[in-house]
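Many introductory courses stop at the sequence. We go one step further.
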Amino acid sequence: MAASQLLLLSLLCTLFVHQCHAACAEVDSDTEAVAGKGFKLGCVSCKLRSEVESTCVIEWFFRPKGEVDFVHIYTYSSGVASIENEEFIDRVDWNGSRMSNDIQDGSIYVLNITFNDTGTYRCYFNRVLIYPNHEYINIVSKLVHLNVVAKATRGTASIVSEVMMYVTIIGLQVWLLIEMIYCYRKISAAGEEALREAA
């Protein structure tokens, strides 16, 4: 392979990898956790200008159900996590972007969820966009309303999907049976006609 072809292939691979890393989709967090199990509190904020270098600090706050004020529970910056509230010590793990100061996924994982964890969680993306001549601070806030239940409940969408799956399977089997009967009759009629012609 010529050197120019190798160079072109290298540039294409670099471009492809860069585009893959830049992909980001903001998906809402689940909102129902089961007591005694772990739960991922999702929080994603995509950076609109992927070519601009930036740093980001993530902060999580919690407001228990029935309370007015939020309490600071977690901070993540430059690969270092800090649990800010004693009720969450040894219960929170970082579940977001790794190996980068340019964080777009600020999700955390809470271990051993209890009913006391029911309430509203707020995550802040404190992002600093670094331009050649100045820096721009962009703060994004997202809320997750968490409900803790004793046993997992199935959502309406899940039930409807399962019913539709069974209806589709049964419908396809009936259609296949009708097609088999139709084909059998056609073959049988053709065989009888061939016998009459031979006679």
